[in-house]
Design goal:
single chain; about 80 residues; alpha+beta; Arc Repressor Mutant, subunit A; two-stranded antiparallel ribbon; elongated
């Protein structure tokens, strides 16, 4: 979740940053969103390859930061 803590990212960018398959990243993002640790919104892409297309951008929630802090404290 570290890359998402720094900026909004779409599934493709996140899969590249993590070096993981897109399907696996999507699966985990949907699970994290269901738990309230990640949120998403749609935006229009300005990147040349996808210019004008709707993309879904993800970011971590405040709840994720709270959970991370609790885990660090517990360990």
């Amino acid at each position: 979740m570290e890359p998402l803590a720094e900026k909004l990212m779409n599934i493709n960018a996140l899969s590249i940053a993590l070096g993981m398959e897109r399907k696996l990243v999507a699966y985990h993002l949907f699970a994290l969103e269901d738990c309230g640790l990640v949120t998403s919104r749609y935006a229009i892409s300005v990147e040349p390859r996808a210019k004008g297309k709707a993309i879904r951008l993800y970011r971590v929630t405040d709840m994720a930061a709270d959970v991370k802090a609790m885990l660090k404290k517990a360990l």
